[in-house]
Amino acid sequence: MAKKTFKIRQVKSGIGYPKDQKATLVGLGFRRMHQVVELEDTPSVRGMVNKVKHLVCEEAA
């Protein structure tokens, strides 16, 4: 059975935000603005996305 995944896009820069939020963006796999990453749908990943929800948006499947 395939694992569930979802896509998110970075829509706002991490500049001017706390170091832990910048580190969360890097931990999610973002390297530049408007990049789309596909991540496995796990509670830990959802928690990371929730922490930077003001910087990212979920892409349509």
Description:
It is built from two helices and three strands. With 61 residues, the protein is α+β, with helices and mostly antiparallel strands. The protein has one domain (5-58): 2-Layer Sandwich (Ribosomal Protein L30, Chain: A). The protein has a three-stranded antiparallel beta sheet with strand order 2-1-3, with no helix packed on it. Helix 1 packs across helix 2 (43-51). The two termini are 18 Å apart.
The biggest sheet amounts to: 3 strands, antiparallel
Rg result: 11 Å
Count of separate DSSP helical elements:
2
CATH class category name: Alpha Beta
Alpha-beta content class: alpha+beta
Strand order of the largest sheet: 2-1-3
- Which spans of ≥5 residues are poorly predicted at pLDDT below 50? none
**Helical coverage, percent range:** 25-40%
SSE string, helix = H, strand = E? EHEHE
DSSP summary, beta strand count: 3
Mean pLDDT: 94
